[in-house]
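WARN retry 2 of 3 for item q-0093 after timeout on previous attempt; input resubmitted unchanged.
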Amino acid sequence: MRPDTPAENVDHTAEAARLERTAGLYPEDAEALLLQAAAHLELAGDRPAATALYDSLLASPTGLENPFLVRALKASNLWEYGHEAEARAIIQGVRAAAPRDPAPWVIVAEALESHDELEAAQETFTEGARLLLVEGTPPSHSLQSLLFGRHRVRRMLGMGHDEWDMLADTLHTSPVSLDELHDPKRVWSLGSDNPAELAAEISRLHAELGAYRQALSRPFPVAVLHWSAPELAELVQAYPTLADEYPSHEEHLATIEASLRELAASGTPNLGIVTGTVPSYEAFAASESASPADATLLPQYATTLAARGRAVAWPPPRGASCWCGSGRGYAECHGARG
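OK item q-0093 returned
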């Protein structure tokens, strides 16, 4: 959730204000946009304002997609400007709630780690891994962050490798191994007078930064736009010219699956699906000073939704429900169609 743009190139206060205004235009994306705004406020040094934004999200009458992520970010922020007791209480609550998303676990564990609570950080990383890792299923990118953080803290504590540490080693693709990156002696080498030691440490830091930038620079998915049956009916009723684009809902779903299969066969990576709503699409059209009846806006709308983090990866993971919303498993629904 942290912006990756260098601080010297951004007016973080102005960017936070812009994101808050955008959240007002796109209420269905308000949670993600306001979290980005709070992150900019933290980077601007206005941590009380960031806390106020987290509080406003948690008080939302419509509920949140990931309330534990918001609580974790709030705890991390509070601890940074002296509210340790409140931060600890929130962290304890997040751990007790056992969220099914890796991000809250990583954030609260890193908050503990950054304040030298290494034993508690190791326990938190381990609790999250024990809850979320599924044997035989490759860990997602966010689960890899959980494993890497756990590896780092255990290395700092001088603990021996276990099965999950070895898994983290196999998932790590940087030329510099995790053991080297997480070596506690690196801290001491930064104060060395030996040019060779300093050069070696600079090399390691370059490798670590390169891997981090590579993760941040993963492209947005190539997103295909999906409409639920009620939304599509409302869309075509309001803008009849779009009936040429969407003859029927069943054909719309079949076209999505066929398009994604064709893209996958051509070697296109990072495929995803974004689900539109009529109010969101109308707001997007207004922001483009265009008519929602213009079919050329549809792919632009899909790209915008993907850029705001609304894309769901395709194909779904093994055993997951189908992307179409039927409630059936993907393998028994659109995934079963040749």
